[in-house]
């Protein structure tokens, strides 16, 4: 029931426990964390609020999520954390804007009142480095917009469909979807702010803002003397912000976006974060290789005939002439002499308009990966410690390689007589919010999962495989990562999707998982108060 709330049910939480709710709105992030205060009341944290562009009934779904948060929290949360500027994390601030009370709004009945908003330092307009970063990412986004539009226009050159350009336009549009944009937007390519920037502006007006720094002193939440929040990322090192691929540290070293088929002889088309959708790069070098082959597959023969062969055979109509030279034997005249016949000839046909130069593809690839990876690397990473030396809730946003690598460079935190490091926090992690919907580039091995050794570890993956498949993200989540998580957690892995895609396995929940609550709108787990 839109716009209305019911009274929240009392929450029974002991000291050192937590309730973590992951909403099931689709391919996107929204979490509600509830912690016990010292006086018996509850401290409430909302983390992100979004769903990927193209989700059916997205506005209604996000309004339903926020309505549930209003009902559960009796209309207020103490803290709103916005991890980074991607549509699948912030779209709800636009779609359900009417459900949020503004900071200066007196009449807020039926709306969600927020005590404080946390952004990463990267959003601070007073920070010179943040301004440079915003300018750089904005310029990159603009260039991706232009290239995507160029591929789209090229796809219908002279009314002739160019499938390759269409594929590349689709792939770049997949990147733009994380910024809330499509090629069909009326304002596409305009100089104005992206939709994600608009969402961030709305979130910034909800409550007073705090900008968080990696390695800052542990934050004690008001009324929760034993709960501390450690800020691990994003890093301030520009080199680390731009480092996006995990390589040996990851569960899969992905091939580049739009990978060329000749690298291995067979395209690894389901391993990249975004599937290129075509096996043969359309450039002149590849064309020459295919033409020279003595045996061509049907697909290769098609491309040779219709893309690379500039002289193509055709037949033409002519009259077969009679012998004219002296001594010609009239008896040697062909039976067709003097008749109209069809004869073959080679006709030069310019097919270069069908091809996309390799350099153009490589440049589009690099720009797309830079934009997506650098934005993910600006994710705020928080570790919530439940009591001195107690369990840890780890929320990594969509942090990629550089973000993860930076944590070990942070000076140890001094808490009383204790010394706390990133490795220590990972070792005590009992709840892991899996980054970037389980993609290969947002969870580390040796410096990540292998450090998560707590016996009570659980992993929540905000993902919707049917939507990911529609976007042609065929390995989201990555099977090897899910398998590693299942081994680490003893099968306590939850995917937020409401139904698996056809022909793909169901990720079954552990049947004896007493602390897990399953609802159509969310999964909720009670994190125990004990430590290993």
Write a brief caption for the model:
The protein is an alpha/beta fold and about 525 residues long. It has helices spanning about 60-75, 85-90, 90-95, 130-155, 165-175, 195-205, 240, 285-290, 300-310, 360-375, 400-405, 420-425, 465-470, 480-490, and strands at about 20-25, 30-35, 40-45, 75-80, 115-120, 155, 160, 210, 220, 225-235, 310-320, 340-350, 380-385, 390-395, 415, 420, 430-435, 460, 495, 515-520, 520-525. The protein has 14 helices and 21 strands.
Textual characterization of the structure:
By secondary structure, the protein is of the alpha/beta class. The chain has a domain at 311-326 and 333-349. It is built from 14 helices and 21 strands. It has helices at residues 58-73, 87-90, 92-95, 128-154, 163-176, 195-204, 238-241, 284-292, 298-308, 358-377, 401-406, 422-427, 465-470, 479-489, and strands spanning 18-23, 31-36, 42-47, 76-81, 113-120, 156-157, 160-161, 209-212, 219-220, 227-233, 311-319, 340-348, 381-386, 392-395, 413-415, 418-420, 429-433, 458-461, 493-495, 516-518, 522-527. The strands form five sheets. An eight-stranded mixed β-sheet has the order 8-5-4-3-2-1-21-20, with helices on one face. Strand 1 (18-23) and strand 2 (31-36) form a beta hairpin. The longest helix has 27 residues, at 128-154. It is elongated, with a radius of gyration of 29 Å. It starts with 17 loop residues before the first strand and ends in a 5-residue tail after the last strand. Mean pLDDT is 82; it is low at 1-7 and 253-279.
């Amino acid at each position: 029931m839109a716009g209305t709330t019911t009274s929240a049910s009392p929450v029974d939480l002991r000291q050192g426990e937590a309730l973590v709710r992951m909403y099931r709105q689709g391919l996107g992030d929204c979490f509600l964390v509830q912690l016990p205060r010292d006086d018996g009341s509850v401290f409430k944290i909302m983390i992100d609020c979004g769903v990927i562009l193209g989700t059916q009934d997205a506005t209604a779904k996000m309004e339903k999520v926020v309505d549930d948060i209003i009902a559960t929290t009796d209309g207020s949360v103490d803290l709103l954390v916005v991890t980074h500027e991607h549509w699948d994390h912030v779209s709800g601030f636009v779609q359900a804007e009417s459900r949020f009370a503004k900071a200066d709004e007196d009449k807020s009945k039926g709306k969600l009142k927020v005590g404080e908003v946390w952004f990463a330092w990267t959003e601070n307009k007073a920070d010179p480095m943040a301004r440079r970063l915003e300018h750089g990412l904005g310029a990159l986004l603009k260039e991706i917009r232009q290239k995507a539009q160029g591929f789209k226009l090229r796809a219908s050159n002279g009314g002739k469909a160019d499938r390759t350009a269409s594929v590349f336009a689709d792939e770049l549009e997949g990147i733009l979807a994380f910024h809330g944009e499509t090629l069909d937007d009326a304002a596409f390519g305009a100089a104005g702010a992206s939709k994600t920037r608009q969402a961030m502006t709305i979130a910034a007006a909800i409550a007073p803002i705090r900008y968080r720094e990696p390695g800052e002193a542990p934050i004690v939440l008001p009324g929760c003397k034993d709960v501390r929040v450690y800020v691990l990322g994003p890093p301030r090192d520009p080199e680390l912000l731009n480092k996006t691929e995990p390589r040996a540290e990851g569960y899969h070293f992905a091939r580049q976006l739009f990978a060329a088929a000749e690298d291995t002889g067979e395209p690894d088309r389901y391993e990249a974060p975004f599937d290129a959708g075509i096996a043969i790069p359309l450039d002149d070098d590849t064309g020459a290789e295919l033409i020279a082959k003595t045996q061509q597959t049907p697909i290769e023969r098609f491309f040779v005939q219709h893309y690379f062969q500039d002289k193509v055979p055709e037949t033409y109509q002519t009259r077969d002439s009679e012998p004219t030279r002296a001594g010609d034997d009239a008896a040697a005249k062909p039976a067709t002499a003097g008749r109209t016949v069809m004869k073959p000839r080679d006709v030069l046909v310019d097919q270069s308009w069908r091809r996309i130069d390799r350099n153009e593809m490589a440049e589009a690839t690099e720009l797309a990966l830079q934009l997506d990876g650098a934005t993910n690397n600006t994710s705020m990473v928080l570790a919530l410690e439940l009591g001195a030396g107690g369990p840890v809730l780890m929320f990594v946003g969509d942090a990629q390689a550089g973000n993860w690598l930076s944590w070990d460079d942070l000076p140890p935190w001094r808490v009383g007589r204790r010394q706390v490091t990133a490795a220590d926090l990972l070792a005590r992690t009992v709840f892991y919010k899996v980054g970037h919907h389980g993609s290969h580039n947002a969870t580390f091995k040796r410096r990540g999962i292998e450090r998560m050794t707590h016996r009570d570890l659980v992993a929540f993956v905000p993902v919707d495989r049917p939507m990911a498949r529609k976007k042609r993200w065929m390995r989201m989540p990555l099977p090897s990562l899910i398998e590693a998580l299942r081994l680490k957690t003893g099968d306590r892995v939850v995917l937020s999707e409401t139904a698996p895609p056809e022909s793909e396995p169901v990720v079954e929940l552990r049947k004896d998982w007493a602390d897990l609550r399953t609802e159509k709108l969310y999964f909720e787990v009670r994190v125990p108060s004990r430590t290993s």
